[in-house]
Amino acid sequence: MRTHTTRRLLGALAVVSTLALTVTACGSGASDGGGGAAGPEDVNAALEKGGKVTVWAWEPTLKKVAEDFEKKYPKVDVELVNAGTGDKQYTALQNAIAAGSGAPDVAQVEYYALGQFAIGKSVEDLSSYGAQKYGTSFTPGPWDAVTEDKAIYALPMDSGPMAFFYNKKVFDKHGIKVPTTWDEYVEAARALHKADPKIFITNDTGDAGATTSLIWQAGGRPYKADGTNVTVDFGDEGTKTYTATWQKLLDDKLLAPISSWSDAWYKGLADGSIATLSIGAWMPANFTSGVSSASGDWRVAPLPQWTKGDKTTAENGGSSLAVPKAAKNKELAYAFTEFATTGAGATSRVAAGAFPATRADLESKAFLDAEFPYFGGQKANQIFAESARNVGPDWTYLPYQVYANSIFNDTVGKAYVTSTKLDAGLKAWQDASVKYGSDQGFTVNK
Length: 446
What we know:
There is one protein chain. The protein is an alpha/beta fold. It folds into 2 domains: 3-159 and 317-362, D-Maltodextrin-Binding Protein, domain 2; 162-314 and 394-445, Periplasmic binding protein-like II (D-Maltodextrin-Binding Protein, domain 2). It is 44% helix and 13% strand. The chain has helices at residues 3-6, 12-27, 40-49, 62-72, 87-99, 111-119, 140-146, 168-173, 182-195, 208-217, 237-251, 263-271, 284-290, 330-341, 343-351, 359-362, 365-368, 380-389, 401-406, 408-411, 422-439; strands spanning 51-56, 76-81, 106-110, 147-148, 151-152, 155-156, 162-167, 202-203, 223-226, 229-232, 255-256, 276-280, 298-301, 319-322, 443-445. The strands form 5 sheets. The protein has a 5-stranded mixed β-sheet, with helices on both faces. Strands 12-7-13 form a 3-stranded antiparallel β-sheet. It has a 3-stranded mixed β-sheet with strand order 9-10-15, covered by helices on one side.
């Protein structure tokens, strides 16, 4: 997964049209396409009959999955289309839905963006197809991200349980211990920067996904959503725990003012001037491809904790496969979605480098015992799997999270470049998110 594309955001104009469409659809009793809900027997019948399934996705491991699916079901033709990554695909998908034609049968949708399609009833509830049987097959974070009450709006394709990546060579040189708490992390940041002013504990110029992930880990739950009734509240204790610690790093100028995924960021990871990353378990492939010169220097450890002795983590990134209401072959679409995200399809994707959302793959001996030459032969998947088991429950995104994230740098981002404090920036983000939601027809509380 190329995370610099999977974290991209829709532009404000595209989101305005999206929300206008989705809330209107929600209030108008959008059709489910007519007829009764399909069931597992209809899926089996569709596979016997055959047909064509169009899949919009940018994830490269799906190519092998599509080949394997066609081999198993020779009457089915899978057309895999890269309609753009992240924002570009969402715009194309929303345009197709609005036009009433041209929508795919299956679409890759990131977890944070799924809500805007679910609220508008523009994706199928997969419960009747048999998806409810997978409730215990996936790890908690991804499953929570695709479900609401009894509805299942997609099946998880991958996940991003967080871990702590650190440059062992740099830590050893300066006698720094690997932090197990965020308080120790702040002390490590100070010690590193004092030992060598060119070294920063990490980079951060303001990132909505990273911020909400750490608030999630700290126990904050700023968002609640029940249909068109939503709550935005960054005044909870979990959020305060995060801001109190992160503000110290900002005040002491201990964060490299370098944007992630930039050339300077890759250079900093390679030369050790950026000494750690707290990020999703999909990161190893990016180290191998983008920071090859530092092979052997880096290691993986559990994410530092807000309370000593805890093991709570959070998700950072990941995406699902959804079936649009406008799909022409919904039963075949579900069959492919199920194949790609469970059983042999999921295992195939993991073997090709995807990080699993399925418990079976996370617990397999082959996965857990895999050695990472980049990390000095470390069995890093054991740390990632433990993180996946300890993701804090009940996290919710806004049904217009894509828009909210797009204004992060206009609000919270000021704390990184001015005297504005993080808690004030989050309050500004809250107020702007409340206003936008209200303007779009949501009932928003704060």
